Amino acid sequence: MNSTDRRRGVAAGILLLAIGLSVRFPITSVSPLLNTIGDAFHLSASGLAAVSALPVLMFGLASPFAPALVNRLGLSRAITVLLGALAVATLVRPLSTPLLFAGVVVGGVAIAILGILAPQIIRQALPRRGGFWTGMYTTAFGVSAAAGAALAVPLLHMLGDNVVAALMAWAIPVLIAFGLALGLGPALGGPGARGHRTPTQPWSAILRTPGIWPVTGYFACQALIYFSLTAWLPTIAMDRGLSPRDAGLLLAWLSIAGLPASLLAPTLAARKHLRTPLIVSLAVLSVIGLLSLAFAPIGLAPVVVAFLGIAQSGAFGLAIALIVFTTPSAALTAGFSAVSQGLGYAFAALGPLLLGFLAQAGVPWAGALLVLAGVAGAQLCFGVWGSRASQRNQGG
To answer: For residue range 116-127, what is the model confidence (pLDDT) as tens digits?
Structure first.
């Protein structure tokens, strides 16, 4: 490996981690404060459900634009622009009710496209260790999610219960990531970087790519479960008797418990014969965790949420790994990723909305969690299908 390739790999790895660390805490830092935000901005339960669901909905709506953005700006400049937009959105969203929703929308768009570009960074700059870097990326996701959930309430109290200041403070780490993108982006070089365009693949070719539909279905199911839990786990826990602080820590524990799975699942999935057993094991663990959250004593919540954390983090890592390993060429990666994540997130947006509407209608949380357990069953079916497709596309 020459010095140029080494610099490119280092820049790609740092930017990949910076993206992973930036794209979950803007969401998970809101969930523990939903009631406080509702009081501050005079939002009903439906309004709070919309705040929870809008980012995920934007993930679906914005994803198809990722390939065109990269083709126009180049990979490094696109990353820089998106991180800047996310920083601005995080800064302005607590300033008023209209800006709250505008910030959620813009932030969701930026997070969506950054997530689409991550597999492309891996395929183009870090292809020799795709499983490892996918695991590093998804682990950074988990750290970001855990930090937002764990620190949201303490940060609010540290800032004198000023919800505006507490929400604005989360722009600081995004600004750091933005600075890293400014400094390291040009070192990416190669196809897809600034000044190097890759032709945009026709959507008809992308939609006919073998394996795209089972991978999309798998991504959709795991994302729906994850975002439903991210939005409503603290509320479920508080309704069952936990304090707001403990409920927020429970959401943080969901991410922390899953950190080893975030790293190990994609790394192990690089071995083709292990993909299907991993998919089956994590789906079964998800069903067990959801049923336990519905019916087990609340005192067992830390154990139950640990199961769910392992299942959700591992499943997300496998979903990204399936995108990386199933896409037949680097040229198709952005489009394949845009379709699977875009449609997947659009479907996942129904989860927080559905649980919010069920709660407003008086349906017990156990009923809502049974619905999520059914989605985990569908995740299992799509995952096995997608695993077989990835093995065929890799020639085995």
So the answer is: 888 888 888 887
